[in-house]
């Protein structure tokens, strides 16, 4: 399997797996290519530990925090009709959904220029799962490895992960926090107003059900730049209170 990976790195545009056997890096018979692919095994837990051990010592630090990124990549396979668990995945280059596979990557941001990313976790997104759900499992595995952390670790993601299945993974974690881009059409709600009490009778002046939400916070409606707002966020069975500083950058809202 190691020689197969070396051959893959040294072969320009391989058209089939058996073509890799012609590489000088692959010193075995051509049939061993399929033996490695069918019977080769990798222990994911040991692989994650190895990736953590070889992580570069000089990595990007922002405000004293380590930064991890999560995103997906696609492997387009439109002609492989018999490929197992093939589903429609969106291609940004072709701007449409194409049959293939999707993989979720989690790793540490090493540098910005040139951009460098040290992988820590990789998992295939099956047709029965979602990128947010897979990323949530990856975050929990990373949190277990960073249980005793000297610095705060931040996971940065785009607006596709601003969903409860992913954000719920951070509830209760002390070693990890998340910085997520919110979609521009997202609407948040402030805290509900306090009930008005009639001083004469000591009861609520207005009958009926108490409001669950306060004023709307529309990201499409430009607020005052660098405006700070607080809002309740419901995740699963519990609710937490979050805060956001919202600024306008070329009509793109970040929270």
Core attributes:
single chain, 255 residues, alpha+beta, three-stranded antiparallel β-sheet, 18% helix
Tally of helical segments: 5
Mean pLDDT: 81
Shape: elongated
Helix content: 10-25%
Structural class of the helices, strands and pairings?
alpha+beta
Strand runs, count = 14
Cα(first) to Cα(last) distance is 44 Å
Topology:
Layout: H1 2-10, H2 31-39, H3 44-53, E1 61-62, E2 65-76, E3 87-91, E4 96-111, E5 116-125, H4 131-145, E6 153-157, H5 164-167, E7 176-180, E8 187-189, E9 197-198, E10 203-204, E11 216-218, E12 227-235, E13 238-249, E14 252-254
Parallel strand pairs: 2-6, 6-7
Antiparallel strand pairs: 1-2, 2-4, 3-4, 4-5, 8-11, 9-10, 12-13, 13-14
Characterise the protein shown here.
With 255 residues, this protein is of the alpha+beta class. Helices cover 18% and strands 35% of the residues. It is built from five helices and 14 strands. The radius of gyration is 24 Å and the shape is elongated. Residues 245-255 have low confidence and may be disordered.
Brief account:
The chain is an alpha+beta fold. It is built from five helices and 14 strands. Strands 1, 2, 3, 4, 5, 6 and 7 form a seven-stranded mixed sheet that branches. Strands 12-13-14 form a three-stranded antiparallel sheet.
């Amino acid at each position: 399997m190691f020689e197969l990976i070396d051959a893959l790195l040294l072969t320009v545009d391989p058209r089939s797996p058996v073509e890799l056997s012609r590489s000088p890096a692959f010193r075995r018979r051509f049939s061993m290519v399929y033996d490695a692919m069918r019977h080769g095994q990798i222990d994911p837990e040991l692989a994650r530990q190895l990736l953590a051990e070889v992580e570069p010592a000089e990595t990007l630090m922002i405000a004293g925090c380590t930064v991890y990124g999560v995103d997906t990549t696609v492997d387009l396979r439109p002609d492989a009709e018999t490929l197992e668990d093939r589903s429609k995945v969106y291609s940004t280059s072709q701007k449409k959904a194409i049959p293939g596979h999707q993989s979720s990557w989690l790793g540490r941001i090493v540098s910005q220029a040139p951009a460098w990313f040290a992988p820590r976790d990789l998992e295939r997104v099956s047709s029965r799962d979602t990128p947010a759900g897979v990323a949530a499992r990856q975050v929990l595995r990373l949190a277990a490895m960073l249980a005793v952390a000297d610095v705060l670790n931040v996971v940065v993601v785009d607006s596709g992960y601003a969903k409860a299945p992913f954000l719920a993974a951070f509830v209760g974690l002390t070693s990890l926090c998340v910085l997520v881009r919110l979609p521009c059409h997202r609407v948040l709600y402030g805290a509900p107003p306090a009930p008005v009490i009639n001083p004469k009778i000591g009861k609520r002046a207005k009958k009926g059900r108490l409001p669950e939400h306060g004023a709307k916070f529309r990201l499409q409606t430009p607020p005052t730049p660098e405006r700070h707002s607080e809002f309740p966020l419901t995740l699963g069975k519990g609710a937490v209170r979050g805060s956001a500083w919202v600024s306008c950058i070329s009509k793109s809202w970040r929270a």
